[in-house]
Amino acid sequence: MVPHTIVPITGDGACLFRSLSYLMYYNQLMASDVRELIVKHVVDNWEEFSIMSHDSKGDNYTSSAEYLAHMSQPFTYGGLCELVAAGELFGFVFEVYRNGELYKSFGVEGHPVKRLRFTQDLSKGHFDAYVPRKNEELTTTPLFFQYDHASNISQPSSLFGSKKASGKRRARYTNVKRKKQLQDAARKYAHNNPEVNRAAVTRYSKNKPEVHRAAVARYQKNNPEVHRAIEFRYELSNSGKRLERRALPWKVKAYSGMAYDPDVDYEADSIIALGTMSQKCKYCNALKWKEEAPGMCCNDGKVQLSPFQPLPEPLYSLVMGSHSEHVHFMNRVRKYNGCFNMTSFGAKQVQQDGFIPTFKVQGQVYHLVGSLLPASEQEAQFLQIYFVGEDEREVRLRCNNFPDVKQKLVKELQRMLHEVNSYIKDLKTTIEKVPTICKNFEVIIHADRKPIDAHGGRYNAPTANEVALVIVGQQFEQRDIVLHSHDNTLKRISEIHRSYDALQYPLLFCRGEDGYSIALSQRDPQTKLPLKNTVSAASFYSYRIMVREGEVNHLVYFRSLFSQFLVDMYAKIETERLNYIRNNQVQLRADSYIHLRDAMGKQDADVAQMGQMVVLPSSFTGGPRYMHERTQDAMTYVRFYGRPDLFITFTCNPKWKDITDVLLPGQKSHDRHDIIARVFHLKVKKMMALLKKGDLFGKVTCFMYSVEWQKRGLPHIHILLWLEQRIFNNMIDKVICAEIPDPVKDSLLYNIVKANMIHGPCGGLNRNSPCMKGGNCSKRYPRQLLKDTQTGNDGYPQYRRRSQADGGFTVKINEIELDNRWVVPYNPVLLRTFNAHINVELCNSVKSIKYICKYVNKGSDQATFALENKRDEVKLYESGRYISSSEAVWRILAFPIHERYPAVFHLAVHLENELKTVNGVVCSTFQSACKALGLLEDDKHWDNTLEEAALCDSSFKLRELFTVMLVFCQLNEPMSLWEKYKDSFSEDITRQVERELQSSAQQIMDEVYNRCLVMIEDAVLALGGQELQQYGLSQPKRLGEVLRNRDYLRETNYDVNILAQVVSNNEGLLTDEQFAVYRQVLSSIELSAGQVFFLDAPGGTGKTFLINLLLAKVRSDCGIALAVASSGIAATLLEGGKTAHAAFKLPLNLNYVETPLCNISKQSNMAQVLRDCKLIVWDESTMAHKGGFEALSTTLKDIRGNDGVMGGVTVLLAGDFRQTLPVVQRGTRADE
């Protein structure tokens, strides 16, 4: 061996490819071509090289696409995998030397040798080239090689030492050296005589098989990577044998789930193949899989949006990967967006230990905006930073909140936004127009606009004049954004404002592109003309998240920011639906639901008066009533078909090739939850088709499943199957397995079980496992080892889990050897077919049925919390929900979260008297029908109670006792008790009537009993009960007087003659102005115009006199006029006056409630007063919170069934703004 010279290679990450280029072509200029050839060879032979490939973190690449995208970069480091590929691809043997000694050799022996020097370690090292000092290798190089004389060759540095004698003694000849010489000689002989060597090895292995097996097992254990690489090479070089072993077609699907054959090629069957994402929508060119719905992307061409413009620099380079800071930027893209967003993101983000592959929030999601300029002695934040005016100070303020961002990048992005963002430019221009003497001003961003030369409903790119100064007295829409110059409060932005997206995500919409707006019209697919219907938020964002041919959708490149955007936009979609429900409670009354009607019981009350103020109907997907109905459906299946047979949990596998093949360069599966959701949806359809149409376990009579998102965000489904042919105990082992497969006979299933179906480890092996609760595994692992499957005492099967002594196998996870105790039960056929976590359990007990039926329909996680207004079911749902990125995509694309077969119909109506008919006889009430059926107990114990009380208690006490029984004790036959004890109830009344009428009681007993019933009814109403006829008793006569509740009596208990005299005496005292107001208010009342007046006058000018006269006028005509005031003192000056909070039961937290409501139920006494009310007077209204008026108006609309302002009742607001003290912001008592 001749001495070699070290040729230094540039250390830019491509040193390996530069070294190979120099060794083969004698220059480094061919490095990119060498890289391209090696990468292509690795991709073409991915099964062989996947285990040897490593990314910058030392992990294997998940797919060939990911490897290709990463290794094609010009400065990506090459290592072991690439050297093996170079040895196979080029006609050389590449020897790698480390510390002067041979480290590894790559290539086919006998080919010319090329040598490289390697320093440091395999993951972070550097390669240089070795060239011989003599030119003996030039004859072996191709003719087109050219020597690069200009290459910078260092001073000679001998690899094997100098030829000059060192002068030292020759080393001693030892047995170690002799042994090494013999080994080298044997190796050389074996190489030169391979046939003789193979024959000797075969003979030795045959004579001593135990030694051979032990040696092989020991080598496999010590060198697992080499063993796997050999397996791959063997399969590639012996593909015929491999196909012969496992390429049997899956011909018969029926009952094949009970007859697993490891040689069947389940995973390649056409029934579960998805194909490629190459199907184009004929309207919008969106790329989809073949079996996806045609209208999923653009609603069959009715949604037409303009494509995104290319991102400006430097954002384009940062996102697409050509910028040197690409990796840093993408790892912190949400933080960089946070540096520039103009609104704050209001939501509770769910944080968990470790890496979280999804963005997840709990509760309401909303955006808040502050003032344009900061208060004195406060730093600017969010939108305010854009108007600081100094670039360096802007950068410093942005970086203060996110210290790990780079100021240079922030400065470049800041400059870009100032140049291209329409909102920033217009806001700056508008503020500059404000006179310097004007300290307080307002700027408006309109919710709707009609661009020049464009239809108002068409989506357009932003135009000029996006914002404008607010003119004093100018009217604007409720959805408009009004920005104050100085304001310490944060205002919530309407979710349907067009700038909602652009203000929160300035990097996604850097030019200020419009988001969803309710004014966006659908368009005819052919003529492009607008249609009557508008585009829904779900359709809008379904269009926006799709990838289209010939168009770059930069949203999908933003990784974690894209995940947050998905959650935010789905929250917007759901908020739009919930607001519709909140605003249409008249059509969605809670009392119209079957469950509430059933709960009303026996009294058969008026259902029109029942219900809560805000209800979430069962038609709302994912709501509590919706999931409750699904549970009832499951129990209906149980009643009709019996217990379900199989309970299957199917979880998405983010490493599916269908997912990894469509990822963009550098992306991981958790960066594209849109792809995860779409692929899993198709996989679910494939599985249900295999189970139902393919009869995998036999004919399916019915099924149901629900989709959930929990823990780390991946979707999974819970499936219940009812089979026509039941699974008996002797068939369990054919359907369900809880053991590790034989790694030799069934290596494919072994690897799938190892990757997906091993629980933990947890317990003493891993105390930090997420399944650990209270020191124990919540899933009850490890399980007991059993030689045979057993049925437990409670009916839950205990599956066969054999020990190693009984023939079981083990698997090593994180250097921990685990046996069958840790295996999650599975079906081998399903597992091989779908390569995912698929838990299969047998439903073998009645005890488990109700739990499983409720579990499969329990829905996604909900937070447990206390809410002050529990009658608002919409807010209750919003505050408790969790939303993850994957669920957001699922719901945006309108994928079902629940499926069932056959359909279950809810019978909401019945034939007349159908339920009252018992044995052909029509009962008078539902209660009597129930009694005839024996469903109700009798009143004997209540009869005994009254009999005992009649012996010693007075009539008054007996009536009280009977009243309590009527209201609270649910008597079955109150009329029988009345007839038996009515004389005892009315003894005192009998004596009173005899004294009044001077006649015998026998002649006037009807009057006695009537008075007794009136007293009992009054007492029942005082306890919150109903009229006596609702309890089955006779309705008492009130001598022509209409029955009134106490609130009603209080508002009508006036002497109309005295009031008429007051009106007559005081009308002439009114001034001209007072009389004009007096006539206008009375005219509104007479015409039922429902006008709202504001009476503004200085103190002492007769406001109270006028108000009292109006109250007297309305009450003198037997009408109801309510008089309230904001304070107790002011209320005392009004006839019959009360405070507004006491009269209308206003909420106390008006500052924090978005949609306040009065605490008045529709069936209450006060509700009857408000229905018949003619006039409401509110004095000192200038002191009241605006939320109080909103609460009263919403409540009156609901109770009176009138959508007009204040429910159509005439309202007079009075007050004096001159008496309202000025508000001093952040003031103290010293400022008085």
Descriptors for this entry?
nucleotide-binding, ATP binding, alpha+beta, 1232 residues, 34 strands, 5'-3' DNA helicase activity, Cathepsin B, Chain A, 6 domains, five-stranded antiparallel β-sheet, EC 5.6.2.3, 37% helix, five-stranded mixed β-sheet, helicase, 43 helices, single chain
Report on this model:
The structure is a single chain. With 1232 residues, the protein is an alpha+beta fold. It has six domains: 4-132, Cathepsin B, Chain A (Alpha-Beta Complex), CATH 3.90.70.80; 197-245, no CATH class; 314-450 and 465-585, no CATH class; 624-901, no CATH class; 937-1039, no CATH class; 1050-1215, 3-Layer(aba) Sandwich (Rossmann fold). It has 43 helices and 34 strands. The strands form eleven sheets. A five-stranded mixed sheet has the order 1-5-4-2-3. The chain has a five-stranded antiparallel sheet with strand order 25-16-18-17-27, with helices on both faces. Helix 2 packs across helix 5, helix 6 (175-192) crosses helix 7 (194-207) and helix 32 (955-968) crosses helix 35 (1005-1022). The longest helix is centred in the middle third of the chain and has 24 residues, at 560-583. It is flat. Residues 135-170, 239-245, 450-465, 471-476, 590-612 and 863-869 have low confidence and may be disordered.
Short recap of the structure:
This protein is an alpha+beta fold and 1232 residues long. It folds into 6 domains: 4-132, Cathepsin B, Chain A; 197-245, no CATH class; 314-450 and 465-585, no CATH class; 624-901, no CATH class; 937-1039, no CATH class; 1050-1215, P-loop containing nucleotide triphosphate hydrolases (Rossmann fold, 3-Layer(aba) Sandwich), CATH 3.40.50.300.
